[in-house]
Amino acid sequence: MSDSHDAHPVSRFSGRRFLILGAAQGGIGGATAERLVEEGAVVALASRKEPLKLLKRLKRRCDRVAWHACDVTSSESLQRLAERFEADSLDGLINNVGIEAAAPLDRQSAESVDRLLDVNLRGAIHATRTLLPALRSPGVIVHVGSGLALGGCQGFSVYSATKAGLTGFVQSLAWELAPRRIRVVAVAPALVRSPMTMQHFAHFTPETKRQIDACHPLGMGTPDDVAAAITFLASSDARWITGTILPLGWTPHYPLPSHVFFDSM
Ligand SMILES: NC(=O)c1ccc[n+]([C@@H]2O[C@H](COP(=O)([O-])OP(=O)(O)OC[C@H]3O[C@@H](n4cnc5c(N)ncnc54)[C@H](OP(=O)(O)O)[C@@H]3O)[C@@H](O)[C@H]2O)c1
Q: In which residue ranges of the chain is pLDDT below 50?
């Protein structure tokens, strides 16, 4: 919806260290990394492929930006990542990792179901568990969920289940970590223009576009819109917020489209 964000305090995250899981140029993780660095944070990124373009942009502002190879579906890979961070060395963990595969359940292969669960849900839980010792108090964990965890949409039963699982995980973990002053929250974005979704757009019919418009009162979002919400939740302004799933660009009171990706298959 927004083309750019307003001016913001440059020192909101001065000296604070964040690890972002899943940060690619043009996506939500990449936009979050840029926003955090702009506001004074030191960030480390982790993903399977090195995001060279993003790293180049970030290093222009902060020469302490680091990237680590990590596949969240591998416990060895997560363990190697965790060994890079001393105990109590991170102010925040942002988990943006996610994949989508849209198809009616009877056309989803068993492998596709397992892959979605492994990356979006098991990966999120194991990554949080493995990296927990690195988080200091007070600290914050922000997961990127989805509006599809809060409302249904044809073709997304498995993806929705993974993100709804994440919602439950966040709500209960928030209670567990509150005594350590570590907040646990998630954002639940509606449709965002990112590499994950752009591949589908060329195939949308006018009816699909109409349905998307009808359920996004403020229009589709941008990665910057999500990054702004993530950084708010990660900031000390949100120090009284935990266990919350923040819907972005949509709420359960708006209808979801019934056929978003079917006509692109
Ligand atoms: N775009 C939307 O409309 C939308 C709406 C609601 C929610 N979301 C959620 O927002 C998040 C980010 O989406 P995006 O649109 O920004 O897509 P994106 O740019 O594709 O971001 C996904 C990130 O996850 C990483 N990743 C994927 N599999 C991984 C694995 N096994 N281990 C480690 N990293 C892995 C990717 O990097 P590598 O491939 O290099 O590993 C990439 O950096 C996802 O969780 C998605 O479900 C998106």
A: 1-4, 264-265
Find out whether the beta carbon of 166 lies less than 6 Å from any atom of ligand 1: no
CA 96 to centroid of ligand 1, rounded, Å: 6
260 CA to centre of ligand 1 in angstroms? 19
Kindly give the distance from the C-alpha atom of residue 84 to the centroid of ligand 1, in angstroms, as a whole number. 22
Question: 22 CA distance to ligand 1 centroid (A)?
Answer: 6
Q: For ligand 1, say whether the CB of 37 is within 6 Å of any of its atoms.
A: no
Write out 7-66 in H/E/C secondary structure.
CCCCCCCCCCEEEEECCCCCCHHHHHHHHHHHCCCEEEEEECCCCHHHHHHHHHHCCCCE
Residue 33 Cβ inside 6 Å of ligand 1? The answer reads no
Q: Point out which residues pair with 189 in neighbouring strands.
A: 248
The phi, psi pair for 187, rounded to 5°, reads: -105, 150
DSSP letter for 6, please: P
Q: Is the CB of 182 within 6 Å of ligand 1?
A: no
Whether residue 254 lies in the annotated active site: no
Is the full-model pTM beyond 0.85?
yes
Q: Which residue of 99, 114, 116, 158 sits with most ligand 1 atoms within 8 Å of its CB, as the best mutation to test the pocket?
A: 99
Q: Let me know the angle formed at the C-alpha of 236 by 82 and 245, rounded to the nearest 5 degrees.
A: 75
Task: Please name the helix (run of DSSP H) or strand (run of DSSP E) that holds residue 95, with its range, or none.
Answer: strand 90-95
What pLDDT is recorded for position 259? 58
3-state helix, strand, coil in the chain (%, to 5): 45, 15, 40
Helix then strand count (H, E) for the chain reads 9, 7
- Sketch out the chain's domains with CATH numbers: 3-249 (3.40.50.720)
